[in-house]
Design goal:
The protein is 9% helix and 40% strand. It has helices at residues 156-166, 173-179, and strands at residues 2-8, 14-19, 22-26, 36-38, 44-49, 55-59, 64-67, 76-78, 85-90, 96-101, 106-110, 119-121, 128-133, 139-144, 149-153. It is mainly beta. The protein has a four-stranded antiparallel beta sheet with strand order 1-2-3-4, with no helix packed on it. The protein has a four-stranded antiparallel beta sheet with strand order 5-6-7-8, with no helix packed on it. A four-stranded antiparallel beta sheet has the order 9-10-11-12, with no helix packed on it.
Length: 191
């Protein structure tokens, strides 16, 4: 199958995402033949690797496959996107995973609690092609077919602190909804 993505697993193999064969693992010194095959038959569009060895594979159908406990165990399937996952990025700590999709959304996942629903970030007017975390993990940037870059705080507290530096009152629920993803419930911002 066509190669859709490449990623080196720390202290391990080269992961190759294939459109139809799944994830192939290669010894970087011997690229002539695959060492192992994961997610056989899946169409893999994107890969993401964390510094602590987690591997995420974005499928062409929308689910993300997450190997959070090593490559010898079956992956956890993260459901949320409704179309191809175009990009994956782990925060430097490895605790959060960001994904973008042809469905026009960005999602923020808790990689240590994959059963939790992701935070859905909406704002692009078309397909979202790429996501990347800042070096400190506090900011996420996404880029899309609408030719825009969006900057997202990854935790509500830094945004609340910035608002409180300029306002002497809490955000109203309507203001909260205008600036934060719908998945983050309203809370008092200024203490």
């Amino acid at each position: 199958g066509r190669i859709g993505a490449l990623a080196f697993v720390p202290n391990g193999p080269l992961a190759v995402g294939s459109m139809g064969k799944g994830v192939l693992l290669f010894d970087p010194a011997h690229l002539a033949s695959a060492r192992r095959l994961l997610a056989t038959g899946r169409k893999i569009r994107s890969l993401g690797v964390s510094g602590d060895g987690k591997l995420a594979a974005g499928t062409d159908e929308g689910p993300i496959l997450l190997w959070a406990s090593g490559l010898d165990r079956p992956p956890v399937e993260l459901a949320g996107h409704t179309s191809a996952v175009t990009s994956l990025s782990f925060a430097p700590s490895g605790a959060r995973l960001a994904s973008s999709s042809v469905d026009g959304s960005v999602r923020l996942w808790d990689a240590s609690k994959p059963e939790q629903k992701p935070i859905r970030l909406a704002g692009h007017s078309g397909w979202v092609w790429a996501v990347a975390f800042s070096a400190d993990g506090e900011t996420l940037v996404s880029g899309g077919a609408d030719r825009s870059l969006r900057v997202w705080p990854t935790r509500p507290q830094p945004l609340a602190d910035a608002v409180c530096a300029h306002k002497t009152r809490n955000l109203t629920p309507e203001e909260w909804g205008a600036f934060l993803p719908a998945d983050i419930p309203w809370e008092a911002t200024c203490r």
